[in-house]
């Protein structure tokens, strides 16, 4: 089974993709999916429309801050403490949701980070037949240190847990693992990244601490379906972590 890392989203993904946007979409996603159904979209307009249609809570960011009228930001630290009640959530951020368009045709699209590392790699190995592609979302079209380091971490775990399955790492797997070894702690990589620097300027230091936690969630968001709202894609996710309750899925959209 092939194992590859893409430093930015590519194309032609056929089997399993683990999409990584550590700061902050794919860290926030399992936190939300533990307690609510989850939609993800790159569009503020679509987020507001689908939230109104389904009575959803709005969570998200632009330039690190929550847009006007949103219930919550995309802060993993804030979302861990948020009181969601029985309402589901639509999440919009700037990088990870845009990257979904590049990988949505894969058989299985999972959202991964340090925060759900064990669960997402276990799920990927359980679901894959030919290939696992760990895809970094990047930041505004450029490579992101934090995503590459996380990809190296996830790849290392796939190789270790996939012993006996003939896992064949490609060259960029080794590149990502080399960058991983340059940091004694994941939080160092996050702090040195462009996204991390932005969050620290905004006083959101705790987001870096939460995003660097290892395997604190068993939730594994998997793309269940996609549809258009206001001319923009909206992606509904379900939880395929082991032992996930069947209720943790975004509700069906209406016409």
Q: Characteristics of this structure?
A:
alpha/beta; five-stranded parallel sheet; 10 helices; 10 strands; 37% helix
SSE layout:
Elements: E1 2-6, E2 16-20, H1 25-33, E3 38-40, H2 44-54, E4 57-60, H3 76-81, E5 89-92, H4 96-103, E6 108-112, H5 117-127, E7 131-136, H6 145-161, E8 168-169, H7 171-181, H8 186-192, H9 194-201, H10 205-211, E9 221-229, E10 232-239
Parallel strand pairs: 1-7, 1-8, 2-6, 2-7, 3-5, 4-5
Antiparallel strand pairs: 3-10, 9-10
* DSSP summary: helix tally: 10
Mean pLDDT: 95
Query: What share of the residues lie within helices?
Result: 25-40%
Distance between the termini: 40 Å
Cα shape: globular
In brief, what are we looking at here?
By secondary structure, this protein is an alpha/beta fold. The protein has helices spanning 25-33, 44-54, 76-81, 96-103, 117-127, 145-161, 171-181, 186-192, 194-201, 205-211; strands at 2-6, 16-20, 38-40, 57-60, 89-92, 108-112, 131-136, 168-169, 221-229, 232-239. The protein has ten helices and ten strands.
